[in-house]
Amino acid sequence: MKKIDKEKKLTVLGRETVFDGFLKFTEDLHIQGAFSGAIDAQGALLIEKGAVCKTQYIRAASIIIEGTVYGSLTAADKIEMKTGSIVHGDVHAARIKIADGVSFEGAVYMLRDNAGIDGNLFSMHPEQLKQKLRS
Which family is this protein grouped under (predicted)? Predict the structure, then answer.
């Protein structure tokens, strides 16, 4: 796992945590439990092994998946799916890494230097973002 910058704040939703709703954050978040809803973030997101996320969408600077995700994923930088992870949904990112042993069902859309994204990615409504990515 990558080193954590001590200057950054890290939030952890623990293994016994069940969260249903909308999450918005600016620093790093690790999800170890269950999450359903939507995530709109400027920081990095790690979905740990054993975690299950059922989302409308996830938007973050970068996303690393070790657990299970159902829903659309968009990262300004990269999305990484680690061995054993399960992803059901479309992914949009400048860089995508899919390890051996990943169960992935969805489409991949590569973003080039944030091409097709005007303004702040994190302030767009999901439908606006979809339109931008399709054009």
Answer: Belongs to the bactofilin family.
